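Summary for the funding panel

The consortium committed to producing paired sequence-structure records for every protein in the target list. Below we show the first two records in order, beginning with the earlier of the two.
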Amino acid sequence: MSTAELRNSIGEYLSHIEDVSFLNALQSIVASKASENLSELSDFQINRIQSGRRQHKEGQTVANDVLQQEINQWVNSKAN
């Protein structure tokens, strides 16, 4: 069974459990395991994300297909 299938299966089982103390204990276990896989972002990474969000909000973005066309045109102009 794949990871995604296991998650879905577990979720289905959990939706039928009413025992609050069991669910609290399980939440603690899952939160502990999930925090092992989280890493903190560096200041540089946070600044880059904020900059990207600001650029997107201000409309300073280019659609991927438009950018790809520009790249192809540039490459073709250098090849000729």
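The next record, for a separate protein in the list, is shown here:
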Amino acid sequence: MRLGRFFFAGAIFLGLAWFALRSPIPAADPRFIKADVADAGAPAAVAVYLETGYPRERAQAEIAAVAAELRAVSRGPEPAPATRRAEVLDAAATRLESAGITSMMLRFGDNLVVRGRRGNAPWRVGLRDPRGQQPDDALAYLLADRDEAVASHGSDRVVTVLAPDGVAATAAAQALHAAGPGWPALARERGLEQVLVVEADGAIEATKALNGRLKFLRGAAPRAVH
């Protein structure tokens, strides 16, 4: 399996594919809504956790509008580039926040945006083992308890970056991928503190700030980069 399929397929994030590794939220909790977005041109999903009293019907209407925006990106003759997907996710997060929804996890391809918390717990973002045999084979998971975005780039070698917004995360992931083995110096130069790199030979490197947030599974042992 190629490293370009680094995150779980199908929704999260973020399993996000990223979407959450086994969410502990009861399926019957009316404050939690998750919807997979079909025909978006790339795996896409929206999950929100509502404040008590927020009208569920209104939330579902907002989610439907976001889903329509994601689908619209796929209507061109070519697949939407990562930067465009990131722009759409950033705009979708802003739309939901303007509607009063402040806790969400949005995924579109290799781009993810997280806002707020999943009730009393952080959002749990699963990172797929690039050499796993099953969609649920996880390399690690991240507890996301702040407003941030995640983007990955690469096929034989995968670079994942966390940044305040999707466009910034995507641009950084692409730049660090192009830097090759010299990525740590570029990351320090740009002030990028949360980076994960899975090399083609399976070696894992992570910046110290991100390494402390990741929970690696099955004995994976990343090298911490300062």
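Regarding this second record: The chain is about 25% helix and 25% strand. The chain has a mean pLDDT of 83.
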